[in-house]
Amino acid sequence: MKIVACYSNKGGVGKTATSVNLAHALARAGRRVLLCDLDPQGASGFYFRVKPSKKLGDDRFFTDVKRFTDAIRGSDFDGLDILPANMSFRDFDIFLSRMKNSRSRLKKALKAAQGDYDVVLLDCPPNISALSENVFRASDAVVVPVIPTTLSERTFEQLVDFFRDEKLPRKKIVAFFSMAQATKKLHAETAERLRKAHPKRFVDVTVPFSTEVEKMGVHRAPVATFAKSSPATEAYDALWRAVAERL
Amino acid sequence: MSETFITDGAGGAALRRVGVGKARVVPRGDEERAPATLHDTFDGALAAAGLLLVAAGDGLWLVGLPEGPVHQADAEPGFVQDMNEGPVTAALRPRVPALRRLIPVADATLARQAMALIDDEGKTLVRVAVCAVSTGHGSATVLTLSPLRGYDRPHARLRAALDPLGDPEAALTALRPPAMRYTAKPPVDIAADMPARKAATLLARTHLSVARANERGIVADHDTEFLHDYRVNLRKVRSVVSLFTGVWSEKDTTRLKDRFRALMAPTGPLRDLDVHLLDRDRYMEMVPEALRPGIVALFDDFAKERAAAQAALARHLESDDYAREAAALEALLASAKRLKPGPAADVPVAPFAQDLIWSRYRKVCKRAARIDDATPDEEVHALRIHCKKLRYLMEFFAPVFGPSEVKPLVKALKGLQDTLGAFNDAAVQQDALRAVLERLPRRGAARIEIATSIGALLTVLAQRQAEGRARVASSFAAFDSPETRAGFADLFHRGKEAA
Predict the structure, then answer these.
(1) B1 to chain A, minimum CA–CA distance in Å?
(2) Start and end of every AAA domain (chain A) (predicted)?
């Protein structure tokens, strides 16, 4: 079981869209995926039409294995389950460390219908905190969507600095360009500069800015379900392959 | 875990009306509809297991398993052991007897439609696979419910809503044309106070009709069970005629005996060859490797003979003479009054049956008790015949004495019969092989090879016969237990002990 965090220290970069579409692409490729909705604002569960459970606000949540596993909901897609969470993060550290410990009750309880999950995907809240550090430590890969703008460039640098300062393995960072607009000269220039500065951090994936991705809110479904051959769908497929390569 | 429900043809429509709180059932995607052929064994082994096997343009569909419809592209229905490996074949294997062929039952339409129970947000709570099979005779809908993780409650409520939908057995039976609604052992309603002649007529008529239902399958040569069932049922008719003494006039009884013996006689050669050929693997195992080519040659001959015997029997069964005679016998048994009554015609069934069974039981015990290592084989054979007659009588009259009361006694008897059967089979097979030896050409390498192999088989069979023979005494001792004795006396000698 691999843990993949979808993370951005800046809001509005398409992080939740990334979580939803990446989870869906992995499941379509035959992986068993558990998508944990940890971002109360992102609400990846919303895109899968999963109603938030009343139980989930409870602090005891992450310490109670049964409550945790009972809260898991099957999505409409084979091999993709959702943990619709809207919780406080007091015990999230414990949750993470237990998830990594193969002998823990949590790890044992955390099984998909057909066996272990191949990938646990965390849709993380957008801030750098003590929590984030634990997420980074527990994860096998940290997927970071970056809009090729000057502002995003700076936040990305901050993230890389944070990894360096905290002696976190920077190779966990899997960055890609999100919401990129081919017509904008600035986007192209920033992307080129960032690739040059962080050749090992960026994978060769660019998810274009697209109305299809925006329409996910209307369809309440991953983009591949209603726009099968759109550039965005292809980009998310390329993204899961790039992530899988790093795992 | 998913599970499957069978409902009648209206099941799919009823599903759309099911409401579970705010959730409702909606179709997901288009219905896929294809012409197909429904298959099953003649005796409906799949239907009895709640399954439908449908051959469509894209291969085989097996519908009704708890996990939902199973598909295999490259398989043709037949004997399961001859079918290509795959998910359908694997699911069929434990459910279809090896001796039965899967044959076309009816032309059908297969309609598949994915549906889902969704909540007010459009989220799927339970997946429902709908598979409807309709023939010109009826239709059945098979619903497979697959709950999604975390939605146990709506699943339970949908289940509960579906529970009262239709009678699965009736729906599956309705798919079959009347000629394919075969029951090898239909219940015969015999009441304790029914006159013996009426009971005899009812039993004979029922078994004759079961036998006749197999005619077409024998002619088509689908599998060997048709002939087997045909013969078993004619033998039962003959047992009724010969064992129910005094229900018909002596003259009529003799005529019936002769006519039914004649009706069955042409089936003997084919059945003997079937039995040999079905035993092929066992024969092969009986002899050492070096002698197996001889067995192969022998069985090639058997197979050729069988083809000729089958063709001959098929011609006979399709002849006007046969049709006339079978119809005439049916007419004789159509009413209890067609045949002249004998002295026991009006005796109520219960005392009539008690007398028959009790005296047969006494005969079995007397003869069995006499058997030791020195007893001639003929007496062992005679005991076997008495046991068989006793068994038939007990089964014929089980409804009168209560099937659950009779069952343990039949089971005890069966133990003894198995031993006697092993003894007899070995003897019969030896006779048959000796007959083959005599028919072999006078010279030639093939003759020597076959003769050597038969020699080896005869040795093994003689040994088996001796083993069976040695077990008779102990098998009878097991049958002759105080409980079984008390059971026979209680059921079949009630109130007569004192007299």
Answers:
(1) 9
(2) 1-164
For residue range B81-97, list pLDDT tens digits in order. 999 999 999 999 999 99
Range from A40-49, B155-164, B468-477 that averages highest in pLDDT: B468-477
Top-confidence residue, B167 or B61 = B61
First to last CA, chain B: 63
Question: Which residue, B398, B399, B354, B347, is CA-closest to B195?
Answer: B347
Give me the pLDDT at residue B425, please: 86
Residue A51 and residue B124: Cβ atoms within 8 Å? no
* pTM for the predicted model, two decimal places: 0.80
Radius of gyration over every alpha carbon of chain B, rounded to an integer in angstroms: 28
Tell me which residue of A102, A79, A83 sits closest to A29, measured CA to CA.
A79
C-beta atoms of B149 and A74 within 8 A: yes
Q: List A residues 165-224 in contact with B (Cβ-Cβ < 8 A).
A: 220
- Picking from B75, B77, B94, B95, the residue whose alpha carbon sits closest to that of residue B86 is B75
pLDDT at residue A25, as a whole number? 95
Backbone φ and ψ for A185, nearest 5 degrees, come out as: -65, -40
Handedness of CA A134, A140, A145, A148 (dihedral sign): positive
Asked if the A2-246 domain carries CATH number 3.40.50.300, the reply is yes
CA dist B199 and B191 (Å) reads 8
Q: Which CATH number fits domain B3-179: 2.40.320, 2.40.50, 3.20.20, 2.30.29?
A: 2.40.320
pLDDT at A53: 63
Region of A100 (left: φ > 0; alpha: ψ -120 to 50; beta: rest) is alpha
Distance CA B332, CA B394 (A): 25
Residue boundaries of the structural domains of chain B: 3-179, 183-344, 348-499
Question: How many residue pairs bridge chain A and chain B with CB atoms within 8 Å of each other?
Answer: 32
Element holding A37 (H helix, E strand): strand A33-37
Q: Which of A49, A71, A113 sits opposite B123 (nearest CB)?
A: A49
- Collect all residues of chain A within an 8 Å Cβ-Cβ radius of residue B121: 49, 51, 220
Taking a C-beta distance cutoff of 8 angstroms, is the pair B76, B102 a contact?
no
ipTM here? 0.81
Residue A91 pLDDT exceeds 60: no
* Spatial separation of the C-alpha atoms in residues B313 and B323, rounded to whole Å: 13
Instruction: Supply the pLDDT for residue B499.
Output: 38
Return the closest-CA partner of residue B207 out of B146, B147, B280, B260.
Answer: B260
Query: Which tokens in the block code for residue A216?
Result: 């996910």
- In whole angstroms, what separates CA A138 from the centre of its chain? 14
One CATH from 3.30.530.20, 3.40.50.10260, 3.40.47.10, 1.40.20.10 for B348-499: 1.40.20.10
Quickly tell me which residue has 């191949």 as its tokens.
Answer: A118
Q: Domain B183-344 is classified in which CATH homologous superfamily?
A: CHAD domain (1.40.20.10)
